[in-house]
Amino acid sequence: MSELTRDGRTLRLAYSMNVHPCETLADLEAAIPAGPADIRRRLFPGKPTGVGLRLSAAAADELAANPAALDRLCALLDRHGLFAFTANVFPFGNFNDGRVKEAVYRPSWRTRERVAYTIAAAHALARLAGKGSVTLSTVAGGRRADGDDRAARDEMARNLGQTAGVLHTLREETGVSVRICLEPEPLTTCETAADTVEFFRNHVYPGGERALHGTARYNAGQATDILHEHLGLCYDTCHQAVLWEDPVASIDRIERSGIVIGKVQLSCALEGPPAALAALHEPRYFHQVAAVTGRRADDLDACASWPEDLARTHFHVPIFLQHFGGLSTTRPYLEACVGAILKRDLCRDFEIETYTWDVIPEVEREQLCGRTLVESLEKEYRYAVELLR
Asked: Is 47 within the bounds of a domain?
């Protein structure tokens, strides 16, 4: 089943449904039988199976405005033996069609649109879960190119603090604790572990506490507790590998800071000569690239002539792969991160995230992954279950 026991601890596993077109509630409802329900039938028959929902702003708004729609989604999950414990609310709108690139980071946490979207999704996920704790992964602040000075970061902190206050009220009303998990990624406010600790220590915690204390409802101690309960990290093993961070040192830095890792996304980047990586450039997503020397670019079209022998790119490939064509994957990095996190018991929620299925070159995809998405997901699950156990 997708709840695994390790050393007496219960670990939850799902795959992120952002690999499916889920731009509307109808899209989401259509994807559940074809994706998570099929995975349950293949791998966990007769056992409850976790789901990592993809909730767009349109879907979250519809669920918030229409209790009948929320009841219908609840019934759909129940009917297929599925339970929702996490959701991806990073992409606000379109994610699976056309050009995404920089739009995936907008709106940022400087905006009320991001706040409203996240709160709507939190109410929906709390209702779907019914009890316990759940997580929402989101953009780590915003795109640096859109504004990264102190004023921008302080504005993000205020909005995060106010959202945490709403989630605290939601927990009092429902008994479900929702944690917002910022997902560090190249090009965003939080890129490395050091960036993340700085943002939380110097902006999120002091700015969030002021925002909560300013409501006159909470004293300073209560505000601190609320921020630690409802704000944390989504640690994506692909993103951290791209920037050549040492996996154990990265986890150590986050652990010492006291920031909670609410969710780990199991994912692999690609590694190889820059010219070979550049051949994978495609028009939909950003594929940030970094050479072992530290040279960086926002996308693969910029690295074809780099003189370095080795670079990594943010191009998710199925996690069971160690090689992809003439390239390597960062699976060893994934395994080192998971080992460090489990050893310290820093997180118990894990999500497979390989959203680039349909932009992987078709020949390699069929040869290495399978003829269909679900075939590839089945292989990813089998690898992930063994890794976590």
From this structure: yes
Sheet arrangement for strand 9-15: 3-6, 9-15, 349-352, 261-266, 231-236, 177-183, 133-139, 82-88, 49-54
Distance CA 310, CA 354 (A): 23
Whole-structure pTM value: 0.96
> Could you read off the pLDDT of 145-168 as tens digits, one per residue?
999 999 999 999 999 999 999 999
Going by C-beta distance under 8 Å and a sequence separation of 6 or more, which residues neighbour residue 240?
A: 184, 192, 193, 247, 250, 333, 337
Tokens of 106: 């907008």
d(CA 244, CA 268): 13
Return the CATH number at 167.
3.20.20.150
User: What count of other Cβ atoms lies within 10 Å of the Cβ of residue 174?
Assistant: 15
Q: What is the pLDDT of residues 165-200, one digit of tens each?
A: 999 999 999 999 999 999 999 999 999 999 999 999
Q: What span, in angstroms and rounded, lies between the C-alpha atoms of 350 and 344?
A: 15
Residue 276 lies in a domain: no
Inside any domain, residue 305: no
Domain count, the chain: 1
Domain that holds residue 357: 3-270+330-388
